[in-house]
Structure formats: C-alpha cells, structure tokens
Design brief:
CATH architecture of the largest domain: Up-down Bundle
CATH topology of the largest domain: Growth Hormone, Chain: A
Radius of gyration: 25 Å
Number of strands: 4
CATH class of the largest domain: Mainly Alpha
Strand order of the largest sheet: 1-4
Distance between the termini: 37 Å
Amino acid sequence: MPMMNTYLTNVWKLSLTNAAGIVNIWEGSSKILPIALAYLSDTLLSIYPVHLMSTIVYTIGLGLLAMSTPSVLSKFTGTCSDNQPECIGRTQRIMFFTSLALMAVGISGTKFLKTELQLKKIKIHPKLPDSDNLSIIVLIIGALGGAIFSGVIKPWSLRFGIPAIFCIAATSFLVASFIAHSGSRPEERNPEGNLLTNMARVLVASAFKISQKLPDDPAQLYENIDQSNVHSLSHTPGLRWLDKAAIILPNESQENKWKLCTVTQVEETKLVIRTIPMFISFTFCGLVKSIGNTYFLEQANNMNPKLGNFKLPILFLPMLYELMKLYWDSARKEGSARIRVFSTVIYSVVCCTIAASVERRRLHEIRRHDLLDKPEDRIPMSVLWLVPQFFFLGMLDSFFEKSVENLFPDGIPLSRRKYLFHFAHGASDVGTVSGVLSVYVVGKISEIGGKNWFQYTLNRSRLDRYYWTLSALGTLNCILSITSFYNFF
C-alpha cells in the first residue's frame, strides 16, 4: 500500500510525521511477525496452513480498508461521504485500524512463505509451475495490477477496493490449490527442536550453573552424538559463560533439557549473539528503507508528474523501486557476503545523500514560486528528480536480501537458517519502526537551534536536513559494519 501515507495526509488530514509514523509502525510490524509465524509452523502448524491462514486474513483486512473510506458506509453510519476528516466516524476508524492489523498478519505470512522457498532453493520455472510459487506470482500480479488501476482512479474507495478484488481472486486460487494438494504435502517436523526454545534453554541452563567451573577440555562438555539425524557444530572460543549450559553434573538427568544443553545448542546461541552488532547495521538500513513509502512518496505527491504529454501516476516510483530490485537480483554477479553487506550500507548513505540534495532543490523551487503556505498547489519541478533515490533504494533492498541469504555458514541446517534469516530481516524492520522515534528525537534536537524540522506540512518542513542527518549516521554505520564484519566472518 504505497499510497497509505498520502491517504492519511490528504483525507484524514494528519500531519506529515503522524502519517509517516502510522505507516512505519504498520510496515515494520508486518515484517517482524514472520519470526512468530516460523515458530508457529514449527510447533503447531506446518508451513502451508500458516500461509493460507495469513492470506485469507490479508484479504479480509484489505476489504475492511476499502470499506473504511468515508463514501462506502456513509449512509449506514450517518456521516458525510466527502474525503474529509469530519466524514470519518468512529466506525470507519475502528475498521481502518483493524484492517491495518489484519493486513500486517497477511503480509508477514507471504514473507514467511517466500523465505521458506528461498532457503529451500525452489526455483520458479515458467514451464513447470509449482503451486506454491504460482500462488505467490498470482498475489504479486494481483497487487501490481490493482496498484496500476488504482493509481489513475481518484475515489479512495476504488483505490483500495480494486486491489481488494484482485486479492480475492488470488486468494480463491490459493485456496483451490491448497485443497487440491492437501493430501500430497508432507508434514515437516524438526527433530532438533525449535531454535527459539533451544536458545531459551541455553540461557536458563547457563544461569543455573553460573557458579560451576568450566572443564579445561571442551570435549568434556555434553553433546548427544547418538542422534545421527541431527546436525552438530564444533565448540568455539568466546562467550564461555554459555558453555556452562553443557556442563555435565553428577546425577544430572540428560532428559531435563532446561538444565543440560548440547554443545551444538550452545554454539547456535553464540552464533545469534555474535550477529547482534551486524544486526545493528541492518537496523539503519531498515530506517532508510522506511522513508521510501512515506517521505519520498509524499514529496512526489505535489511535484509535476508530466513526461511530455503523458501524466505519470505516482505509483510508478514504487514500481520502479520493485523493478530495480528484480533487475539487481538477476543481473548481479556472485560475491562474498562481506562485500554484499558493506555495499548495502554504502547504498543507504548514497540514497540519503541524493535525497537530501533533491529535497533542497525542491524547497528552493517552493520558495521561488511562493508556495510555502500552499501545500496543495503543484510544484513546478519534475517528479523524475526523485528517480535516482528510488533507484538506490531498490539497490539497497536487493543487496540486503542477497547478503542475508548467504550470510550464515553453510553447515547450519534450514531449520536453523530460517530463524537467522528472520532475525536479520527483523533487525531491518525494527529500523523501519524506529523511524518514528528518529523523527521525534531529531525534531526535538532541531528545536534547540530554532524551529522543529518537521512541521505540519511538507513545504514547511526541512526534510533535507533530516536526510543529511541520516547520511551522517550512515557513515558511522559503515565504520560499525567494518568492525562487525571482521569479528563475524
């Protein structure tokens, strides 16, 4: 929903920062939830029921979003039908925020299944379509088709309603596919247990044995070598306090998994802890990505959309971003994970630097044509000026996706790798949510030297200074990334 920020500012008349805050929290939470869905698929349900459930929930949420617009239920709620804040009653507000929650669950389900397919290296072949891959293709085509049509349609009820219709058709296909293949899908159960549960056991067991002395020989630590179908990791130095979870005490039952853990379980926990500094770098990348669907699109909202005699829909920018991701995914040569991660951090700095320069020029045009207090008027500056920052935003996201896929050692099985994959993405999405906090903190600090950089309208705000601040923070993030790389790889 790239137009969500524009809807909140144009119809609900929310301030720039409040609208961006709602969108960032919604997008961030929708991408953090796959961790919970992965845990659910390991403990209660398998992969496909989780995906089916989340897809149905998303479709319901999108339908509620369309119904929450002022014109749909105005006759039943007794409110007016204009796209004005006074026409949005209590019922519409409840439906709107409920739809965001449901759509967040739905988006997380699609992302969860996509991760499962990526890690299993399932390829999409046009002549031999897999039902799971085909369902994702249909969902993408549905959303893309709906976005194209909704971009040239003015009523917000149709802008949200058309994608809802596309998604209903895509969901119907997915349900039919699920029913047709329900008997042929194997139930995958992990004999090694759940990574989150095992990490909790390691922390609890090491806390119980905090006063115990570690043996001089790591070979004396517990490792259940009888389970031939379970992978094993060798002992590594560092974080020795976690090794105490594998100390074998006299008369201790090996059945109590909360007091005695294997070396492999300890090493898995160490691996997650060692990646935390790198995850901090990913958090900043998520912060930069969060401004794409909020401030970047809000800038484009009142810029000149014409290319000759053709009027470009505002959604061509996020579509360009997605095309850049697809292009770099297919055209990029193989490289080390270290280079990919560092490239991701560099692109985030370049993106913010370009955005700051473009915004400074946009503000110059606003002052030159006396448009500071005319936020609805068209700015005589082409929307194509925003293309470079969306270009680098797509490169940033593409390199981030590929670097995370190949970040962790090959010896880690899929049952563990998927959690590490979700942790890395979760760190990025924490950055998306923290965009709300960064705006608040930067705004308060900016008041020390004068007015808050974030005013009620975009024309009065100083987003260029915010982007320069992000560029400076990104430079510091580069230094942190280099340190993290050499400690991890």
